[in-house]
Inverse folding.
């Protein structure tokens, strides 16, 4: 928690509804509860813009400079604990199909892509609401990814060696953040594999801390 006066709300009874989490292949730790709360708040139109989440594996934690800002989180937790349908809706994810790093490299080799040097790869993640999207953008930025967003999608384009181990690490890292906030990788391809590259999408804006967009991608 940063210095200065802040109010904190914690939730420790993480094992409540463990079976429901298990039905979605999830463990009810602080991070998955955080994702469920953010998803529920976004779907319910609850404002959490003044909050900062700081959950750990054994603890759900959120804090704010404003005590009243935590009231929406209290409401969300009560809803998720007492209404089975609300928790199910917050945990479920859309079924998606995507190329694995191994399959993408195989297709690139078949297509004659030069794999002897760095290649640009593009990830596009889809989210259900603006709150989840901005939370994911903040996390991507904090771990060093430059990301852009448009509507409910986030794009990351980076250049790296087309090495399977490296791509698996990148894919796991980027996908993990998306799933923490109820999103998923919608597109994973080499940068030239789509007609709509980031260079051509004028409406994509770069995310910076504080949720303020900057100029569009050059």
């Amino acid at each position: 928690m940063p210095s200065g006066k802040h109010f904190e709300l914690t939730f420790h009874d993480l094992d409540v509804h463990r079976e429901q989490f298990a039905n979605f292949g999830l463990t009810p730790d602080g991070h998955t509860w955080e994702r469920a709360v953010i998803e529920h708040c976004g779907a319910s139109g609850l404002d959490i813009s003044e909050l900062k989440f700081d959950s750990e594996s054994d603890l759900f934690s959120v804090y704010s400079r404003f005590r009243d800002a935590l009231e929406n989180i209290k409401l969300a937790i009560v809803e998720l604990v007492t209404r089975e349908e609300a928790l199910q809706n917050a945990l479920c994810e859309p079924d998606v199909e995507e190329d694995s790093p191994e399959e993408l490299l195989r297709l690139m080799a078949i297509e004659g892509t030069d794999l002897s040097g760095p290649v640009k790869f593009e990830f596009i993640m889809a989210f259900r609401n603006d709150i989840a999207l901005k939370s994911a953008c903040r996390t991507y930025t904090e771990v060093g990814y430059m990301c852009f967003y448009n509507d409910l999608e986030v794009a990351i384009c980076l250049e790296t060696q087309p090495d399977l181990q490296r791509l698996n690490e990148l894919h796991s890292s980027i996908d993990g953040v998306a799933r923490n906030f109820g999103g998923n990788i919608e597109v994973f391809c080499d940068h030239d594999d789509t007609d709509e590259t980031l260079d051509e999408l004028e409406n994509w804006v770069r995310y910076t801390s504080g949720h303020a967009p900057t100029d569009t991608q050059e």
Q: What stands out?
A: Confidence is low (pLDDT under 50) at residues 193-198, 211-218. The domain at 101-216 is CATH 3.30.70.970 (Alpha-Beta Plaits).
